[in-house]
Amino acid sequence: xxxxxxxxxxxxxxxxxxxxxxxxxxxxxxxxxxxxxxxxxxxxxxxxxxxxxxxxxxxxxxxxxxxxxxxxxxxxxxxxxxxxxxxxxxxxxxxxxxxxxxxxxxxxxxxxxxxxxxxxxxxxxxxxxxxxxxxxxxxxxxxxxxxxxxxxxxxxxxxxxxxxxxxxxxxxxxxxxxxxxxxxxxxxxxxxxxxxxxxxxxxxxxxxxxxxxxxxxxxxxxxxxxxxxxxxxxxxxxxxxxxxxxxxxxxxxxxxxxxxxxxxxxxxxxxxxxxxxxxxxxxxxxxxxxxxxxxxxxxxxxxxxxxxxxxxxxxxxxxxxxxxxxxxxxxxxxxxxxxxxxxxxxxxxxxxxxxxxxxxxxxxxxxxxx
Length: 370
Prior knowledge:
This protein is α/β, with parallel strands linked by helices. It has helices spanning 10-23, 30-39, 66-69, 71-88, 102-113, 128-137, 219-231, 246-249, 286-295, 306-312, 315-321, 324-331, 336-340, and strands at 28-29, 92-96, 120-124, 145-148, 155-162, 171-175, 180-188, 191-198, 214-217, 232-244, 260-263, 266-268, 279-281, 284-285, 299-305, 343-349. α4 crosses α5.
């Protein structure tokens, strides 16, 4: 059951959601609800003008990502991107879901310092509001920075995506001890409520699930990676996000699933309250993402923790050179109880580049655990 909704962006968005539920016969799959809550033009969380990214709730932000936490994230990642650009003989970077533009800024600066000859940096982002903020932040780079609202027909270069996959809508499943049902959203006098319906959907892993288990499946994220395979003619792709390999994702102990919301730097598990005012995410099943890319023709060329990846990319000497505050902030990128272990990095290479061995996975690669 949802909590009462504030008079804000939620009001118009709830009216839009109710109309969508009515048009669908009284019930929406959760992935459809999540897409509307996050991406409805002008109203959804990523499409309205609320501030999303920042270090503290006093700024009005809801969460912090690695590039906002420390510029050393982008500087270390630039080392890996530079290697991939040179190895593939390409000169363009594509970033999906560029957020505040902080990572783009850090990467362009790092690549220029490395003498990569970066010709173009293309941002693919659904949010017009975020695009305006990105354009302001990146104006000094001129026409090298371009924006696209759809897939480029052919991509030759390096793809980066930081905390993109977790925001791609998921479907919810509920196990009552005898059968699986799909959990969707209906409408009641109190607003949106969960409602389960029979389904043939199942988790990809046959595990001893306990009664009451709620978990997610990720067909849209897997379809995204399959589509990437169709467009990436030459180059590599790096996905950084929080999640687990399949065997850990569907552990019986994780019977509540991973769905989580973020508002003013507080986390809660109720996506039906404050709709449009908070982020909705789910952890990534990296096994499913890897298999989807592989089945579509990409080569899986690396999988490891964010900490190990950044250390392989040379963040340690950058830490040594930073001042005390900068070092303290950057440490959160690699310490195990902060972002270092929960966040993972998964890398693909295009079909014509099977022997690419990215330096970010030189030590501590975990492909065998996917």
